[in-house]
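job 3f2a | input accepted
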Amino acid sequence: MEKIRPLTGALLAVLLIAAPAAPLPVPEHLVYEVTWSGIKAGSALLEVAPQGEELRLTNTIRSTGIVAAFFKIDDRTESVITRAGKPKFFRENKREGSYRAAREATFNFTSLKANSVDLLKRIEKSDAITPRTYDNLSSIYFIRSSELTPGQSISFDIYDTQRLWNTEVRVVRRQELKTPRGTFKTVMVTSRLTHNGEAAKVGNATFWFTDDSRRVPVRISTTMKIGEVTLTLVEGG
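job 3f2a | predicted structure (237 res):
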């Protein structure tokens, strides 16, 4: 994702495969306050809901107040995944200032192909993926379902309908995090995106997950063209 990218970065020379942690809670409803340079900028929502034998993940971000007056953000991202966490379908609808995007992708792990369509430009294409490929949203839940030990690194790929990003997640340290909702024991995780060896200029993120089996993202900080944006949990978890 070019402007707000929910996640992560490059391949490691030494790859450490994450062992699965406890299954994620279903359903789940997490509400966040969004700040930009210390100014309240809007709200965000992360949801997990059952959909038959699958799970539907949803993320919405909307700007409010003074920020919405000069840079309106209205994004909705959806991902349908198997109970094992593999993505099947991805959809994003974005409005970020003058930028607009509406895209979909379907994942086939038998042929290792992702078929995507740009709904605004009416362009369809097929791209090669790897067995460890996720979309922007399901990648967050992949990290949450992993065993996060300080010093560990996890490598995988993210397909955002435009390109395949090599992803590196580093588990930095355990940290006690104070928020308006209370104090949490967390695990701090950084992420980095690269494509053909070139690092992404925006979208690299830092996460603070609760240091328990649920791995609730208490805070998410990510880079955008307008600067650093932070999501802080205010409800749920």
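job 3f2a | The first strand starts at residue 28 and ends at 36.
job 3f2a | closed
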